[in-house]
């Protein structure tokens, strides 16, 4: 994300999805925090019949689910599932709330979150200080209360951005955008 606006993880994930479907007919999308490293290679990165949450435990939470309903860190959704919920909200500027918003969208579409077993879905979180521009989002609780009214118009269908560059590398594609 270029420019001086606050970090918007959810909108960047929408951009990644929208740019990926321009390149190929992908059918499974893994949305992955950069600071989480899988500990068990039996935690298979693939989609399921329901949206899949791959982080049941991590080292900084004693390998327990962070909280009931947690749907963050690493998630896997099919193209149909992600499209059905209209992707992520584009309105979470700064840290927090976007994962809970996505879970609410999933539940509103009568889908349920599935998870691998806790002994498999384990991650190490790489410790880091919160980046400048990614301060806690003070509006997140208000936004979460509005999901049922906003999800149809806030998401993939309203994700506007300026594409600055697309750089193809051997293991990844680096996409730079400005909002």
UniProtKB/TrEMBL annotation:
GO-annotated cellular components: Golgi membrane
Membrane-related topology note: Single-pass type II membrane protein
Keywords for this protein: Glycoprotein, Glycosyltransferase, Manganese, Membrane, Signal-anchor, Transferase, Transmembrane, Transmembrane helix
Matches recorded under CDD domains: b4GalT
GO MF annotations, alphabetized: galactosyltransferase activity
Annotated Galactosyltransferase C-terminal domain residues: 52-129
A Pfam family: Glyco_transf_7N
Subcellular locations according to the entry: Golgi apparatus membrane
Domain of life according to the entry: Eukaryota
Pathway per the UniProt entry: Protein modification; protein glycosylation
Transmembrane helix keyword on record: yes
Recorded family membership: Belongs to the glycosyltransferase 7 family.
PANTHER family linked: BETA-1,4-GALACTOSYLTRANSFERASE, BETA-1,4-GALACTOSYLTRANSFERASE 4
UniProt protein name: B4GT4 galactosyltransferase
């Amino acid at each position: 994300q270029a420019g001086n606006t606050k970090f918007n993880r959810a909108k960047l994930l929408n951009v990644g999805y929208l740019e990926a479907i321009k390149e190929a007919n992908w059918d499974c999308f893994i949305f992955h925090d950069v600071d989480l490293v899988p500990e068990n290679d039996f935690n298979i990165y693939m989609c399921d019949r329901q949206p899949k949450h791959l982080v049941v435990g991590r080292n900084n939470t004693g390998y327990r689910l962070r909280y009931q309903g947690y749907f963050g860190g690493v998630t896997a959704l099919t193209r149909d599932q992600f499209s059905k919920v209209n992707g992520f909200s584009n309105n979470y500027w700064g840290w927090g709330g976007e994962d809970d918003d996505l879970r609410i969208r999933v539940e509103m579409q009568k889908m349920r979150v599935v998870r691998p077993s806790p002994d498999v879905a384990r991650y190490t979180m790489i410790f880091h200080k919160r980046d400048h521009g990614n301060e806690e989002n003070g509006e997140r609780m208000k936004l979460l209360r509005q999901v049922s009214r906003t999800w149809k118009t806030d998401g993939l269908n309203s994700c506007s951005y300026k594409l600055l560059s697309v750089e193809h590398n051997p293991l990844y594609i680096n996409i730079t955008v400005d909002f």
